[in-house]
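#onboarding

Welcome to the new folks! Below is a worked example of what a typical request in this channel looks like: someone posts a single protein sequence, and someone else replies with the predicted structure as tokens. Don't worry about understanding the tokens yet, we'll cover that in week two.

Example request:
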Amino acid sequence: MNNLKRGDKAPDFSAKDQNGNTISLADFKGKKLILYFYPKDNTPGCTAEACGLRDSYQSIREMGYTVIGVSPDSEFSHSNFISKYKLPFSLIADTDKSVAMAYGVWGEKKMYGKTFTGLIRTTFKINKEGFIEDIITKVNTKNHAAQLL
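Example response:
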């Protein structure tokens, strides 16, 4: 697992979004990016998080950020999730978990007393030069937008 911290260069990535378009970190050179990792489309916590970001999207954009979500779900699942909740941002289908592994958010986690391997909900704020300016590891799914703002 990669232990990224503030000030580190954000790992490059290249993966498909919900429409099959390739998205890379290089696409955001000179732009600020919120890259948020979440476990699964259409689950209560992930839906609350995505809808909160949707509802605060204008304020986030006014701060100069683009929002991109990342989960191991398929392009098809992401497309349905976006349509169902009218999400105004793209979602990356990280089906091979390469983006999650590059960012160190694929690993051991505990839930309901069981230990398993999965995606660790984490958000990275990346500045215009491609460096990590903040990492949110204790994401409050219902108030995540407020954590960012």
